[in-house]
Amino acid sequence: MDNGTVKFYNSQKGFGFIQPTSGAKDVFVHATALERAGIFGLNEGDKVNFTTREDPRSGKIAVDTIELA
To answer: Mind telling me which Pfam families this protein's record contains (predicted)?
Structure first.
């Protein structure tokens, strides 16, 4: 699992971005990933552990699984 910090999350729109501690590009996180993990929201600065996958439709990298660190 990778780890990082929530850079931005908009609960109204249901998406945000995580800044990986590795220095890689920010990773998109959608509300569906949170729902699968039983997480009800994220706040800027939250520490998280996550895995990523490529979205087959867009080809972009997004969070697949997530947990609060």
So the answer is: CSD
Please, which pLDDT band fits residue 3 given cuts at 50, 70 and 90?
very high
pLDDT digits (tens, 9 = 90+) for 41-59: 999 999 999 999 998 878 8
Beta strands in the chain (DSSP E): 2-10, 15-20, 27-30, 47-54, 61-68
Is residue 66 within 8 A of residue 17, CB to CB? The reply is no
pTM over 0.90? The answer is: yes
Taking CA atoms, 21 is separated from 13, 32, 35, in Å, by 25, 23, 23
Which class is 2-68 in CATH? mainly beta
Gap between the Cα atoms of 8 and 6, Å rounded: 6
Of residues 20 and 55, which shows the higher confidence score?
A: 20
